[in-house]
Design brief:
6-stranded parallel sheet, 55% helix, alpha/beta, Sig_transdc_resp-reg_receiver, single chain
Length: 587
Amino acid sequence: MSNSQPSSISLLLIVPSRIFRLGLQVALESYPEITVMAEVETPNEALTYLQAQRLSMSDRPGVGIIAIDTALETSLTQNALLRFCQTLKTSYPHYRLVLLTDPGTVSWQRTRAVGVDGYCPKTADRTQLVAMLKQVAMGESYQVSVDPSSSKGDRPSWWTRVKHRWYLWDIKAISDVEAKLKVQLNQPGLSVLERVVIRGRLRELFTARWCIHWLLAPRLEAVEFQETTENNGDRPNSGISPNQSLVPAQSSSSDPEWSESLIPISPRQQVLETTATHLQFQLNNLTHTPLELDILKPQKRQELLQVILEEWEVLLEDLKFSQIQGDQLLSKKLDFLRDLWSAVVTQFFGKYSRIMVKGAEVEIVPILLQDIDRIQAEYLEKVPLFIGLLNYLVYEIPLMIDNRLYAAGTPEAQKRAEMLTQNLIVQLGNSVVNPLLNHFADVVAVKQIFYDQELITSRKIERFRNDLSWKSRQQQWFGEPKAIFESQYSLLVLEARGIQKVSIYAPRREELDQLNGWSLVVTLMLEGRDAIAPRLQALVGSVGQVLIYVLTHIIGRGLGLVARGVLQGIGNSWSDSRLSGNGERPK
């Protein structure tokens, strides 16, 4: 193979995650010599594309590289993934093969045996990825790993290790008891008192878990790393600094449990675990306004929110490896939310689920997905502080709270991140139920599967939809302009008793400047009230004081004098009548 630098590199991405594909494209935009010629999600799509191309190296400028995400192992076994790589190498030898790997997936040695030319963890930065692609394009095999020069930590002390073991034992014990209680809670026939007691015990366990985590959870500044190299010169000379070819060290500890699990719990993991725990409690609506989720059975409501949390975790994991920088997230906000909403709809209702509507079978999901543009306008665009939440959970960028920055992991930042995450989950749940009510509101099969028993009659369903419609209009006409003018967001958060509404402060000046029409009129009315009300109150207060003075000191005294005169007259008349009764004549 030639070792000359190629003029251009053409990439075929076989990546199941759209977010990760998008991140790779954004990361490679600044390298004009690297072009993404196609992107597919499955091996079958890749083979179809390659069969359609059938271009030899002489027919296409530059070098072709096929980049394969090892996340395909979710649909393929590891051996099937290796066989797929071998098939590509045999059928299309003019292409180079590169694996983009997750921790703990197929090893570099096994992939080299089937013809893979490059091996790059998803955690590698952009420069390492590009350097690896260029080396592979030159005909060399190359592995990118982690730089050990950044390692700062020493082996933790014996006391830290003891605390960690206590932490693991306690958390395991709490998790076991929680699992048993959740099984009991899902059993039919429980009385209201029994359910209250079980939920109370779950809240106690949640508090105990938080206390144990606060006291005993390991907080390490670094993890040990060591440098490793390929055996017997297996790695070719690539012309890149050796510092770019390092992998995490195996712990020197004889305790395998310690070497694998002594990892600080990330802020993201804490937020997700706390939210997952809250989903086990009651999900009653305590906001005094109707929510779309209210129509679902309690079990279906909990199931939907759990699906959203799981898909949200998948999206965060994809973003972690996507190479999308924090400042690039803003332009992709709606793409992320649309993908998340579509994934939740497909997962919750079932990709191929069918119901009978007017004597014909119809698929639910395709019909619901048709409303995505309307859902975006009514729900997704209004999700508050979404980019700040992503930056915090993915990149651990500090959160702005009340005009102050709070670092990742601080109690204030964690509490705010939990509130934003819970609000996102509840709002997405409402947005998933909305198209169901629009298309299949009074379908018997839907009512049997999803609806609460108190909302299954046609009259109650229509009244519920009307309440939702009125709430939406009221929020659009009055609530949202008022919130923008007051620099507030209303969040739906999960508490032990159910879903509650809270308000938080956040600057919204840009939105205020963009208001027009009726929304602007509402803010002007509020501003006018704020300007006039204090003066009017002062004027009314002054007039009241004057009236009080007039009534008490002038009219009151006058009335008092009149009453006194009347009483004196009555007294004189009484005296005269007594004298007349005694037969005495006045002199």
